[in-house]
User: Which sequence fits this backbone?
């Protein structure tokens, strides 16, 4: 049971994370366009992109993606807990391990 439960959690966690990353990237791109009046850099590592713009875009994107992924995985863990009555083994605290 724990093996199947672990696989379900892994798939659920990955799906939540990927969805969150895609939504965060879309939000950052849209926000960047609105804030700067320019399209976001396609590749901030490209030497043709000004360094301050590349750094700003990388910081904003990293923060948004990291935050969105963390929030999505917290929600996924909460849903998993409500559905199964326990946290996944990777997240379980003492006394809550299946």
Assistant:
């Amino acid at each position: 049971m724990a093996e199947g439960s672990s696989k379900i959690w892994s798939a659920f966690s990955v799906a939540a994370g990927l969805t969150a990353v895609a939504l965060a990237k879309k939000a950052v791109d849209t926000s960047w366009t609105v804030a700067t009046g320019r399209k976001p850099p396609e590749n901030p590592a490209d030497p043709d992109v000004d360094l301050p713009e590349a750094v700003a875009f990388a910081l904003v994107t990293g923060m948004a993606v990291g935050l969105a992924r963390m929030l999505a995985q917290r929600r996924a863990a909460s849903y998993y807990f409500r559905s199964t009555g326990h946290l996944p083994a990777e997240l379980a605290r003492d006394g809550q391990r299946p």
The mean pLDDT is 86. Helices lie at 2-36, 51-84. The CA atoms of residues 79 and 94 lie 20 Å apart.
